[in-house]
Amino acid sequence: MSHVDPQLDRARKLAGLNTARRSEPDTTSPFWEFDRDVWGTLAQATPLPLKQRDIERLRGLGDRINLDEVSQVYLPLSRLLNLYVAARREKHDLTREFFSPLHDRGLEPQDAKRTPFVIGVAGSVAVGKSTTARVLRELLARWPDTPRVELITTDGFLYPNAELDRRRLNGRRGFPESYDRRKLLKFISAVKSGAPEVR
Hints:
The protein is mainly alpha-helical. Among the domains are: about 50-115 and about 120-145, no CATH class; about 155-199, no CATH class. Helices cover about 45% and strands about 0% of the residues. It has 8 helices and 2 strands. The protein has helices at about 5-15, 35-40, 50-60, 65-100, 100-105, 130-140, 160-165, 180-190, and strands spanning about 20, 30-35. Strands 1-2 form a two-stranded antiparallel ribbon. α4 (about 65-100) packs across α6. It is globular, with a radius of gyration of 21 Å. Residues about 15-25 have low confidence and may be disordered.
């Protein structure tokens, strides 16, 4: 049975977070859990940059979504991600300014170069990962200070059919073991290291 700190519980209630809790049982976890209603209240102060016609276009790709779901679930998430991107950009700018005396001498550290912000969407087979990624891309691209947003699917990291046959994984296509994880990690490392072109 988990112990609830009364002072922490009171502080959460005063802050309006009484239905949010730290992930259990690890009280040092950096993650928060919110039910849908509480999470949806965050959308009230966030304007919706998607219109019904945008939702219809996304639906045309076979996605089952509606404007209410976008505004209650995806919009607050896109704003939070936008804040993370903005904070990272500010950190980059401050770091670059700090290292600027070294720049003229060609000694600027590699870390001072701006690299992409990578967001991963994970989940079981056919739970809506692609839908989530497409909606987030549409929302993130509409924030005025968000740079170009690209969507990379995992399809390109599936083993070739011959390799799936050899490994007897054709019936497991789309499951973790059917992907070339080494290739995926290499790709992400190249993106995060600021490689000018990644394939």
